[in-house]
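Example 3.2
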Amino acid sequence: MGEQEANRCGSGPAEQANACTVREALDRVGGKWAIGILIAASAGPVRFTELERRVEGISRRMLTLTLRNLERDGLLNRHVHPCVPPKVEYTATPMARELHDSLVALTSWAERHREAISAARAAYDRRHGHPPA
């Protein structure tokens, strides 16, 4: 482990475990797809197909993987109803619901500032000779 990584994860084994867990948790809840899924699931039970419609641009595979990881991390509960065809619903756990206001604030901030960020990127690219993205 390099010095920079050691500083990020703490100096001893206990500090490394705690810091890396915090980093992993932040990576998970701040992921590209996780925010939309957690916001949707915080409103109440939501089905896979509904999440597919609500989380713009997500593929079925990525939705499946993200749901599995959020469930593994204790942020979602998955409930399978015994019927044909099977009905599966996802709900946010209390831990995820605690994040709801922060996630909504973050997405609202992004929405309010997306044009300014776009303009700043374009100005930066012009100054540094980068082609437009």
